[in-house]
Amino acid sequence: MDTVFIKKLCIDTVIGVYEWEKSIQQRLELDLELQCDTRQAAASDDIRQALDYSVIATEVTELVQREPIELIETVAERVAALLLQNFKTCRVQVSVSKPGAVPTAETVGVRIVREAG
Ligand SMILES: Nc1nc2c(c(=O)[nH]1)N=C([C@H](O)[C@@H](O)CO)CN2
């Protein structure tokens, strides 16, 4: 199976468990992988047959910024649900990193895999 992916989609948003996090914006970095069959898009050379990564990036950013969220697990789950609902894919992998959350680590995060049905 083929994959359309987006690496390090940067989203500034209100994210975090603690009170001090609820009045500031922090950066999340998302890696997205959508399993799909790219052959129709390639054969037709037609964006309408493809999973448009520009549209995906916009929809995911809007979803994450819509309201404050506490856990990055919640971000990952909501993004996976959106991708499965709105795009022609049967399996997605969503990684959400929160760089700077642990000063002694380069980054921290979660990675989930979800399938349709
Ligand atoms: N598994 C998780 N652990 C933690 C999260 C989280 O979203 N998932 N969040 C925090 C705080 O918001 C932290 O990022 C503040 O620096 C702590 N642990």
Automatic annotation (TrEMBL):
Similarity section: Belongs to the DHNA family.
GO CC annotations, alphabetized: cytoplasm
Classification via InterPro entries: Dihydroneopterin_aldolase, FolB_dom, GTP-CH-I_C/QueF
Protein name as catalogued: 7,8-dihydroneopterin aldolase
Entries under Pfam families matching the protein: FolB
Catalyses which reaction(s): 7,8-dihydroneopterin = 7,8-dihydromonapterin; 7,8-dihydroneopterin = 6-hydroxymethyl-7,8-dihydropterin + glycolaldehyde
Record keywords, A-Z: Folate biosynthesis, Isomerase, Lyase
Keyword Acetylation included in the entry's annotation: no
Function of the molecule: Catalyzes the conversion of 7,8-dihydroneopterin to 6-hydroxymethyl-7,8-dihydropterin.
Source organism of this protein record: Alkalimonas amylolytica
All copies of domain Dihydroneopterin aldolase/epimerase, residue ranges: 4-114
GO MF entry, a single one: dihydroneopterin aldolase activity
Keyword presence, Translocase: no
EC number: 4.1.2.25
Gene Ontology BP annotations: folic acid biosynthetic process; tetrahydrofolate biosynthetic process
Biological pathway: Cofactor biosynthesis; tetrahydrofolate biosynthesis; 2-amino-4-hydroxy-6-hydroxymethyl-7,8-dihydropteridine diphosphate from 7,8-dihydroneopterin triphosphate: step 3/4
Xref: NCBIfam families: folB, folB_dom
